């Protein structure tokens, strides 16, 4: 199987085929990093792009993400064995009062695929919980997701809390979700914003350790 | 011209004094009359009283029984929480596995809790204002209901992993929604709105397979029972506009992310488009001047039967002067 064929399997959302293909690549002697960057990440870039352009939709994006994860799972033991470093740790979650998680999950998976150690706090996450995670997990960045105009204010609360606890300079805060904009991100003093999961990978990449 | 005449004439493309104001009101209503949110969802008297006040004070032309997406889930036996002063919350999925599908009992709306409450709401509307206002019942469309029962992430994968099972679930949802819609029509609803926002996440192929056929059957049942049908799919539906027009709905809502002119053209001869300014940026955060501009832009783009609303629900914290500004813009439009 060639690299391009595996990429196609990911794009099509074929998890079993992807896992099998990744094993074959390993057997052929390809380096773990090359498989991640050259195949997994590159396939998800295509998926992100097609989603942005309206060629594919949420279900296709989700099954592609699942296939990518299946490939990543094969590599996991080797990643740890080789002492390969993650890009860093990120904590993500949907803010308090908000149950929308599809976008947040996609962002998490894409980041995972790109080589981040992702800690997902789930939905309806209180500001205090983000604070606790920052203290305990010491992530390079946190990603806040909000889909409701009524809950996006909670992002500002999280930023204020970090400031208050003297932790603001230690962690980058990225925000996203349909009602959130670049302008809003700047207004509340966040470090970054992305309109979709593909772009999120690029924005987070700035803060890799 | 009262609201009932206004809507009927407008749908027929006949002259009206102003285009009907078809905004969707939910959480805004209890806040407006100073009642806690939970009462709006649990007590039809509060829903009716608050909506009547909002309709009168802000010149709305439809009285709606829409409140939240979880009436059916509750009556199917799902767990829904009602925080004192927040919107209802359903954080646990009733149908975790398709093995439990046979246990899913279709409820009888007349013996249910929350759908029965909605039916009583329609009856009360009818008594209080039935000759003046069109009364709109509400149901989840089958695809949206499947999502409410099983979870969004799950259904988004089921379309590929378990299409057969998903169709079985959709049949159950369809049956429950038909019963609920017909009961509301019998209670006096002139039209039935149905929400299918989750379907906006599907591309045309999957929408055509899992959402549209069930919308069509639900709408056919609504028509057969003697009411009009309004299809509400918020989100960016540009890719499925062409399919939505085949639903049979008389009114199709258009969210702000869609080009309204394109939607009106697509629906011409099929349905009245209803839309479509941004509920947050324009209605909640905008100024009366900006609102007027947005409303007029929609009217300019539309036809003789076009209806006007914000793309989705009027946000809770909308300033009253902004909601007033929609009515004023409709009244003052110079080119009807
Ligand atoms: C699915 C959905 C639901 C599902 C959620 C299921 C779930 N598990 O997520 C259910 C049915 C539960 C639901 C409930 C409600 N919903 Co809802 N829902 C939607 C819907 C249809 C799709 C959202 C979605 O998943 N989009 C797809 C994903 C992929 O896009 P995304 O989330 O924007 O994410 C992308 C980017 O934003 C970005 N991103 C996201 N997060 C992050 C984070 C970071 C750090 C970064 C960098 C990037 C990033 O990357 C993602 C991938 O590309 C939208 C309407 C629509 N069609 O958009 C309404 C919508 C979001 N809901 C809305 C509303 C009002 C509600 C309710 C209040 C309805 C009610 N009255 O009860 C409740 C609230 C429940 C709650 N407390 O949260 C409104 C919000 C309006 C507003 N701006 O305030 C919308 C816009 C519908 C509308 N037009 O009015 N909803």
From TrEMBL, chain A:
<dbReference type="Pfam" id="PF02607">
    <property type="entry name" value="B12-binding_2"/>
</dbReference>
<keyword id="KW-0479">Metal-binding</keyword>
<dbReference type="GO" id="GO:0008705">
    <property type="term" value="F:methionine synthase activity"/>
</dbReference>
<dbReference type="GO" id="GO:0046653">
    <property type="term" value="P:tetrahydrofolate metabolic process"/>
</dbReference>
<feature type="domain" description="B12-binding">
    <location>
        <begin position="87"/>
        <end position="209"/>
    </location>
</feature>
<dbReference type="GO" id="GO:0005829">
    <property type="term" value="C:cytosol"/>
</dbReference>
<comment type="similarity">
    <text>Belongs to the methylamine corrinoid protein family.</text>
</comment>
<dbReference type="InterPro" id="IPR036594">
    <property type="entry name" value="Meth_synthase_dom"/>
</dbReference>
<dbReference type="InterPro" id="IPR003759">
    <property type="entry name" value="Cbl-bd_cap"/>
</dbReference>
<dbReference type="Pfam" id="PF02310">
    <property type="entry name" value="B12-binding"/>
</dbReference>
<dbReference type="InterPro" id="IPR050554">
    <property type="entry name" value="Met_Synthase/Corrinoid"/>
</dbReference>
<protein>
    <submittedName>
        <fullName>Cobalamin (Vitamin B12)-binding domain protein</fullName>
    </submittedName>
</protein>
<dbReference type="GO" id="GO:0031419">
    <property type="term" value="F:cobalamin binding"/>
</dbReference>
<dbReference type="InterPro" id="IPR006158">
    <property type="entry name" value="Cobalamin-bd"/>
</dbReference>
<dbReference type="InterPro" id="IPR036724">
    <property type="entry name" value="Cobalamin-bd_sf"/>
</dbReference>
<dbReference type="GO" id="GO:0050667">
    <property type="term" value="P:homocysteine metabolic process"/>
</dbReference>
<feature type="domain" description="B12-binding N-terminal">
    <location>
        <begin position="1"/>
        <end position="87"/>
    </location>
</feature>
<dbReference type="GO" id="GO:0046872">
    <property type="term" value="F:metal ion binding"/>
</dbReference>
<keyword id="KW-0170">Cobalt</keyword>
UniProtKB/TrEMBL annotation, chain B:
<dbReference type="GO" id="GO:0004853">
    <property type="term" value="F:uroporphyrinogen decarboxylase activity"/>
</dbReference>
<dbReference type="Pfam" id="PF01208">
    <property type="entry name" value="URO-D"/>
</dbReference>
<keyword id="KW-0456">Lyase</keyword>
<dbReference type="InterPro" id="IPR000257">
    <property type="entry name" value="Uroporphyrinogen_deCOase"/>
</dbReference>
<feature type="domain" description="Uroporphyrinogen decarboxylase (URO-D)">
    <location>
        <begin position="3"/>
        <end position="333"/>
    </location>
</feature>
<protein>
    <submittedName>
        <fullName>Uroporphyrinogen decarboxylase</fullName>
        <ecNumber>4.1.1.37</ecNumber>
    </submittedName>
</protein>
<dbReference type="InterPro" id="IPR052024">
    <property type="entry name" value="Methanogen_methyltrans"/>
</dbReference>
<dbReference type="InterPro" id="IPR038071">
    <property type="entry name" value="UROD/MetE-like_sf"/>
</dbReference>
<dbReference type="GO" id="GO:0006779">
    <property type="term" value="P:porphyrin-containing compound biosynthetic process"/>
</dbReference>
């Amino acid at each position: 199987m060639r690299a391009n064929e595996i990429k196609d399997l990911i794009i099509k959302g074929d998890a079993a085929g992807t896992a099998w293909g990744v094993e074959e690549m390993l057997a052929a002697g390809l380096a773990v990093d090359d498989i991640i960057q050259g195949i997994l990440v590159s396939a998800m870039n295509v998926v992100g792009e097609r989603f942005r352009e309206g060629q594919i939709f949420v279900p296709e994006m989700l099954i592609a993400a699942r296939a990518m994860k299946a490939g990543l799972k094969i590599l996991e033991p080797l990643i740890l064995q080789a002492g390969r470093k993650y890009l860093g740790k990120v904590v993500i979650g949907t803010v308090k009062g908000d149950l929308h998680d599809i976008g947040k999950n996609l962002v998490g998976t894409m980041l995972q695929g790109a080589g981040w150690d992702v800690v997902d706090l789930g939905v309806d996450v209180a500001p205090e919980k983000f604070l606790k995670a920052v203290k305990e997990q010491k992530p390079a960045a946190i990603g806040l997701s909000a889909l409701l105009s009524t809950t996006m204010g909670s992002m500002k609360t999280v930023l204020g809390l970090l400031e208050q606890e003297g932790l603001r300079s230690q962690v980058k805060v990225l925000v996203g979700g349909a009602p959130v904009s670049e302008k809003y991100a700047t207004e509340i003093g966040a470090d970054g914003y992305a309109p979709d999961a593909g772009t999120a990978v690029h924005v987070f990449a700035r803060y890799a350790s | 011209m009262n609201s009932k005449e206004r809507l009927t004439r407008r749908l027929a493309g006949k002259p009206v004094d102003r285009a009907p104001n078809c905004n969707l009101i939910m959480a805004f209503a209890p806040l407006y009359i100073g009642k806690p949110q939970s009462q709006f969802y649990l007590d039809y008297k509060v829903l009716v009283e608050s909506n009547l006040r909002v309709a009168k004070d802000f010149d709305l032309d439809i009285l709606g029984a829409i409140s939240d997406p979880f009436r059916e889930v509750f009556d199917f036996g799902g767990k829904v929480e009602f925080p004192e002063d927040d919107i209802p919350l359903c954080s646990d999925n009733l149908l975790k596995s398709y093995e439990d599908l046979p246990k899913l009992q279709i409820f009888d709306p007349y013996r249910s809790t929350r759908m029965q409450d909605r039916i009583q709401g329609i009856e009360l509307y009818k008594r209080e204002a039935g000759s003046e206002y069109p009364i709109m019942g509400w149901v989840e469309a089958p695809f949206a209901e499947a999502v409410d029962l099983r979870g969004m992430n799950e259904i988004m994968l089921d379309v590929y992993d378990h299409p057969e099972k998903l169709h079985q679930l959709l049949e159950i949802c369809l049956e429950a929604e038909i019963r609920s819609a017909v009961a509301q029509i019998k209670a006096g609803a002139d039209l039935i709105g149905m929400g299918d926002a989750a379907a906006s996440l599907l591309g045309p192929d999957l929408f055509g397979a899992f959402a549209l056929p069930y919308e069509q059957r639900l709408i056919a049942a609504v028509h057969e029972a003697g009411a009009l049908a309004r299809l509400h799919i918020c989100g960016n539906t540009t890719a499925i506009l062409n399919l939505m027009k085949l639903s049979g709905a008389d009114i199709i809502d258009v969210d702000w992310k869609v080009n309204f002119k394109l939607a009106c053209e697509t629906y011409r001869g099929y349905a009245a488009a209803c839309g479509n300014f941004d509920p947050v940026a324009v209605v909640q955060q905008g100024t009366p001047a900006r609102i007027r501009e947005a409303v007029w832009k929609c009217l300019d783009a539309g036809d003789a039967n076009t209806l006007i609303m914000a793309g989705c629900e009027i946000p809770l914290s909308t300033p009253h002067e902004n909601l007033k500004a929609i009515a004023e813009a409709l009244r003052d439009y110079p080119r009807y």
